[in-house]
Amino acid sequence: MDKTWNNKAWFLVLPVLLLVAFSAVIPLMTVVNYSVQDTFGNNQFFWAGTDWFVEILTSPRFWDALWRNLIFSAVILAIEVPLGILIALNMPKHGLGVPVCLVLMALPLLIPWNVVGTIWQVFGRVDIGLLGYFLNSLGISYNYTQNPTHAWATVIVMDVWHWTSLVVLLCYAGLVSIPDAYYQAARIDGASRWSVFRYIQLPKMKRVLLIAVLLRFMDSFMIYTEPFVVTGGGPGNSTTFLSIDLVKMAIGQFDLGPAAAMSIIYFLIILLLSWVFYTVMTQSDAEQK
Amino acid sequence: MTFSWMAWTLPTAIFFITIFALIAAMGVWEYFAPGGGPRVGILRFETTRGDRLFVSLLGSAFIHLAWLGLGGPGLWWALALSVVYAIGVFRFV
User: Fold this and answer.
1) Among A9, A99, A179, A183, which residue's CB has the most CB atoms within a 10 Å radius?
2) Domain boundaries defined on chain A
3) pLDDT in tens, A196-231
4) Is the Cβ pair A54, B61 closer than 8 Å?
5) In this predicted complex, what is the ipTM?
């Protein structure tokens, strides 16, 4: 039967278009307008042209924050994706264990970002925190407020604790959708555990993994609250990521023009990397078909 | 209702009008030639007209940023380079 085309269906898209316009497009336009002007408040603006972009692009402070962010996102993805897959593979598929595991996995996701930061800020403290006190009693001079390596380790472990369960839940959703017939066929063929993973489970998880990688990349690249609460960007600037630097510039220094220029560069980098991730993963999926 | 809080300027207004005009033109193109014109180009994967416009705009943004970071504030050459790049994308990608 031929499809009936009805262009009235486009009107159904209008609500979301309006929502996106007010929540994203209009603020983005305003940021673009601010990025080419200078303001001292009172709704008065002075044309600055591309000066703020040149200032940001030639600033070591911006490049240092960008590299820190890229390294952080790479480390986060390298830990959370394999760990999430491993946990999902070992979760029970039947029985009482399923709801118990699902609730346990969902718990970290329910905790607000600032509360997670506060939990780890207290947890890692040398004087009253369980982790800090325990490590120091073992002879490890752990102190995330003074040592940049310890600060990085704390922020990474905190993020892994907070967000690996998202990868787990997505992978688990992919795994439970695989019909038993696939496993039975693999058993008849004498497939090894690795072969079952490589040729049955991984392809079936590919779509959810794409969502997991994209979400985790975008979230980790935009991370603000947790490291801000735990380390405040320190010691020194060692955990000052782009978002923390941006807030310091916009609200701390009230440099709205440079902050707007930095926001646009930041947005373009996220857009580019997300497009690359999405294209690479969807194309490899299409090639397999 | 005033939009003074958005701090509009003529150059930024022209910039956004150009983007919206491009998207509208893509809509008109799609109306007269439906299907998005999918093809496999030098990137070795299928792209539609919308993909090619996205790649052109994103690439142009980075050309302008690179020009500002390496060359300085005069952006006319960066704009010319972006137009050549966009033509290349629509022709070969």
Assistant:
1) A183
2) 60-288
3) 999 999 988 888 898 899 899 989 999 999 999 999
4) no
5) 0.92
